[in-house]
Amino acid sequence: MSWPGSWPIHLPRRPIACEDAPPRNDRSFDRQQAKGMTSLSDLSAFSLTGKRILVTGANTGIGQGIAVSIARAGGLVVGVGRSAMDDTAGKVAAAGGSFEAVKADLGDPAEAAAMLDRVWSESGPLDGLVNNAGIIRRADAVDLSEADWDEVMEVNLKTVFRLCQSFARRVLAEPGRRGKIVNIASVLSFQGGIRVASYTASKHGVLGLTRLLACEWAAKGINVNGIAPGYVETNNTEALRADPDRSAAILGRIPAGRWGRPDDIGDAAVFLLARASDYMHGALVPVDGGWLAR
Ligand code: NAP
User: Fold this and answer.
1) Ligand 1 touching residue 105 (CB < 6 A)
2) The CATH number of the domain where 246 resides is what?
3) Predicted model pTM
4) Does the Cβ of 79 fall within 6 Å of ligand 1?
5) Which of 12, 31, 152, 246 has the fewest CB atoms within 10 Å, i.e. is most exposed?
């Protein structure tokens, strides 16, 4: 019965008995609940099972971290670089994944342009592209040479565009095919930095390019996004970490209180490659221990 003007209240048919409540310290009840939760949870939107992803600069550093994270998520990794990738192949295998190594110097325009087409034709279509390979040249802006400017621009920006273009041409040529591109930019896509003029210019360029390509391809089945890593322990930051003053200043400014690790970036890349991020276009996600929030 309900009071006039009020909603009927449906009592449970069987009152909740005290014995249904778990004894306060019964851990086995927690475990049973957790098991139930696991069987109910569906993480397939975050899975890369069966997805074939090309990662440039996969022999070391962030590229290696991305390759291993992709393998852990069930993806198949095609690693591209100019150096031997045995170390990464071993780590991917240890994670239960498959790794195909492709040799290419991405500073050579002709080689970079031909590489992705060759991979696609010879070993099959790709579901994703991670533009990770990059270089840095440190010098005061007044001293930076034209060669250092050009070399950085070639690898960090022009090659990124070329590979995005080759990837998109292949995806768009097959009706119904979808693709995901993740460009590895930097916090220096948003900030100036010091003594890295060509690097900062190239990474600002990667931000603009990521947004432009997203606008052109979002409705055509290709997601273009990027990651802005903060300061990560790799060869790229070796000189900074070796300088006690710079190293302490950087660490002191990172809210998380530690340098980033390659797998911090790798796991974010998995999200941007997976179905979970299907409605993300043109985003540059900072993975920086809070550096940009400061
Ligand atoms: P890294 O350890 O120096 O790795 C750079 C990768 O790029 C290496 O695999 C390298 O191959 C490859 N590469 C460079 N030039 C190449 C070329 N011409 N052809 C083929 N591969 C080439 O540096 P990382 O820190 O992992 O950098 C990865 C990406 O993250 C870069 O785009 C970098 O700008 C970006 N990033 C890094 C940080 C950081 O704190 N570490 C922060 C922001 C952004 P080799 O080993 O053969 O040279």
Assistant:
1) yes
2) 3.40.50.720
3) 0.89
4) no
5) 12
